[in-house]
Amino acid sequence: MTSRVSPVAPSLEDTGVHQERPTAKVVVAFRFYEELNDFIAPERRRREFDFACATDATIKHVIEALGVPHTEVELILVNGVSVDFAQRLRQGDRISVYPKFEAFDISPLLRVRPDPLRITRFVADVHLGGLARLLRMAGFDTLYDNSLDDAEIERIAGRDGRIVLTRDRDLLKRRGITRGCYVYALKPDSQLSEILARLDLFGSMQPLSRCLKCNAPLLAVEKALILDALPPRVREHQQDFSTCAVCRRVFWEGSHWRHMLDRLAKAGKAAGDQ
């Protein structure tokens, strides 16, 4: 009598086929404040909303999944406690996300980066040449080159600790960029007012102290050393001069100088109104 063995169906592991396990999820409550609402879906703005996310996701990844570049965030509170970007979320957490603070110093609360965001060294992307020129005019160290791609901007920002200025949200989500501002305005003068207001920079302006072409600080120079470079009328009426150590251009306080000061004053007034 021959014994029979019932066939056993192979397991998924035996066949080399693996079943994907569903990713564990937690539901948390988010609330974004002030201009951060501009980055998220309209139905989620200025209100608390529930959001399901993977348990292994960091709060940085979840915030960016909702549309907010991490460079726009200065303070995150989870259940009232300040946390950093590496925080993992638990079921029922309540998260408040804030942009840059200008009215008061929150340094003792900071967890997302070691220092406040308000460091006035910039790198502007290819679309913000006009803003870069105006920031230089206002005295701020602003690197701009229309040949820079996103990877190079990321590298420069990390190397020099510069704030990235852009209208490209994806650029601000690059891992190496820790300080950045998304520029909302479309025209250079309005963009300058926006940056002065958002970063509280009006009192830090040093008008016409940098070369608009080279970004280098201007240095005072004796008139006798540059006489040959001056137009006759300027040589006759002007006494105070400065020069760029890079391109050697010479500057004096003529009508164009006064026009630029007026332009900066209007931008400062608009920033104050904001």
Automatic annotation (TrEMBL):
Top-level taxon in the UniProt lineage: Bacteria
Mut7-C RNAse domain sequence ranges: 120-262
Ubiquitin Mut7-C domain location: 27-105
A Pfam family matched in the record: Mut7-C
Protein name as annotated: Twitching motility protein PilT
Cited SUPFAM superfamilies: MoaD/ThiS
Keywords associated with the record: RNA-binding
